[in-house]
Amino acid sequence: MKRLSEIQTKLLFEKLSEYIGANIKSLIDRPDGTYCFRVQKDRVYYVSEKILSLAESVAPENLITFGICFGKFTKSQKFLLHITALTYLAPYAQHKIWVKPSMEQQFLYGHHILKSGLGRITENTPKYQGVVVLSMADVPLGFGKAAKSTAECKHTDPMTIVCFHQADIGEYVRSEESLL
């Protein structure tokens, strides 16, 4: 478990700011303690400082995981956000898209969201903004990128893509081996 380098921290915070904006500070300074980000084998973990101090007593080769995996750095040094971060990012999301019940299953199979499956969208969502996708019952389903702004969504064809799929909770079943 190592601290993130300056470049890694910058990449991580840029990715997180796409979804939660300035609320990154709320992730670190929480009422239940201070949390931090650590990297092990190119995976970034979100962990409380209490658990971190306990994990430091275990040899790195014996430690499989600690905290919550937020994502990983690729070989080209890009940061990919994992679906395991959804429950921590959803409450702080600035831009959200709600999908109709008929579209939920399609999204969970990895399909993009069409205008016909769009229930609601946060006002003033810009084009290509990171969004959290929710069901109409406010259950977080995944991450996406807005393909259209809020204004464009109102006047577009029903078969037009309004949100590009990035990650969904169906990945827990489809790729459970690689989420650690």
Automatic annotation (TrEMBL):
> Which gene produces this protein?
LOC117642252
Complex and partners: Interacts with pre-ribosome complex.
Tell me the keywords, alphabetical order: Nucleus, Ribosome biogenesis, RNA-binding
- Cellular component, GO annotation: nucleolus
Q: Which residues form the PUA domain?
A: 95-170
Function (record text) = Required for proper 34S pre-rRNA processing and 60S ribosome subunit assembly.
Report the subcellular localization.
Answer: Nucleus, Nucleolus
Q: Which organism is it from?
A: Thrips palmi
This protein's record includes keyword Nucleus = yes
Q: Which CDD domains match?
A: Nip7_N_euk, PUA_Nip7-like
InterPro entries attached to this UniProt entry:
NIP7_N (IPR040598), Nip7_N_euk (IPR055359), PUA (IPR002478), PUA-like_sf (IPR015947), PUA_sf (IPR036974), Ribosomal_synth_fac_NIP7 (IPR016686), UPF0113_PUA (IPR005155)
Q: Give GO BP annotations, semicolon-separated.
A: ribosome assembly
Q: Can you name this protein?
A: 60S ribosome subunit biogenesis protein NIP7 homolog
Q: Which GO terms describe its molecular function?
A: RNA binding
The similarity annotation says: Belongs to the NIP7 family.
